[in-house]
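Shipment paperwork, digital attachment
Item: protein structure file
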Amino acid sequence: MICLWVAVSGVSAQQYKSYRTLCDTTLMSKELGYARGAEIIVPFNWQREYPAAYPLLFIFDKQNERSFRHMLYTIDYLTINDQMPACIVVGIDAGEDRNRYLETQLSTADSNGRMEENERYLLDELIPYLQENYQAGDFILLVGHSRYGYFVTHMLSAYPETINAAIAISPFFRQKKVQLVDSLMSSKAGTFPRVQYFCASMGNDFQAEMQTIDSAILQKKIAQTNLVIRSANFPQAGHTATPGLTFGQDLYAIFEYWSESQNSYLNDPGANPILMEPLMNDNAVHYGADFPFSLGILNGKGSNYFFEEDYPKAIEVWNYMMQFYPNFSEGWLYIAECKMAVGQNWDAEREKFLNSISDSEIYSDTEKAELMDYLKELQP
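Attachment content:
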């Protein structure tokens, strides 16, 4: 058996290992009345014609290039190491000049505030557009720094039926007539069957705000059983340094349950392929959304069975893998090689491979030629 796949083929890798930038554009908002820059980053195996439902991860303040790129590379690193599922990542510019202030300011605190319009832009325009056109699923994770830390905290508190998780970095929690820690405590976040996550971290700027949420946690004022809160304090860190100190830890905390589940399956030598389905069902209940095991985990488990010459189990795992990753064409050849080893006919796998390789966008022309040579070696 040969294995061409390592991380992502050179034709689509760009600067990331697990992702590629699909478009860097501007999106007009009817609610706000102006356009905002947006970058849409998709998993390397994303393909429009194949149905999927990827978690949707928003990063606000995309115009802060250093922070935004750090977050993207962190997402890429954790994804390639199977610590988080592949996501649709969307970076959104803040409005220019005073608009950034207004779009994160409630009208109850400032009569000119337009945060309510910003809410509608996200909920009624952006999310439906991405779900309809880019295979984004129902799991929504918001990431915001500073003023947008306030915004994402507010969104989780006000719309817990839609927002699954929020990462607020160096936020403040107060505007006139609104204290967001109180709002979060009294909201419905954490009262649903699925688990929700709120991660808050602070540098040397809003230390009093950090004490507010830590006090609420210690006193168990936030009593929602399915709301997981993670706080991290860096009292000597500057305001712009906190994204680099906490973002990876926050993502790890949110997706640890998923990662632990699939890695326990990979590392259990006695695990039967049939155990995958209940584990994935547990993940679906936990997150309120279906996250398949990663391509690396499924391919790795199939390879383990193959090299142990347990070909029926390898076939079962790889068939399962191909349900979720149909453009990973070489998977059909791996199944074919297993069937050859046990004397079974593999004509169906040959046809599935040929159909898949003709449509797949994840391989370069050179890689496709190598896979066709692999097919010739298998054929009598």
